[in-house]
Recover the amino acids of this structure.
């Protein structure tokens, strides 16, 4: 993944790692690379998924809280570990 992020063309980055990778590339590799990524997005038909019409990346969306099912699975796993003598220090 790191090698792909650093390549000029990004190794089909929009289909694999999406907006977070494009933001990283813009921040680390600079505005020239961000512009090239935007041009590739326009040519590939996926630019509008991540950028506005001026080429600016959409703002990052905060992750949602874990679903109730994920929380139940986590707590069930913690209980199972305790029953088998493997205690985790904290449960989230």
């Amino acid at each position: 993944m790191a090698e792909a992020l650093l390549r000029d063309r990004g190794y089909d980055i929009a289909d694999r790692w999406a907006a977070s990778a494009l933001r990283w590339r813009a921040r680390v590799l600079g505005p020239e690379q961000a512009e090239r990524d935007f041009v590739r997005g326009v040519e590939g038909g996926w630019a509008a998924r991540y950028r506005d019409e001026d080429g600016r990346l959409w703002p990052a969306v905060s992750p949602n809280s874990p679903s109730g099912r994920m929380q139940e699975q986590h707590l069930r796993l913690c209980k199972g570990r305790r029953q088998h003598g493997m205690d985790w220090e904290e449960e989230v």
Notes: The mean pLDDT is 78. The helical segments are 2-6, 13-16, 18-29, 31-44, 47-50, 68-83. Residues 25 and 34 are 7 Å apart (CA to CA). Residues 68-83 form the longest helix (16 residues).
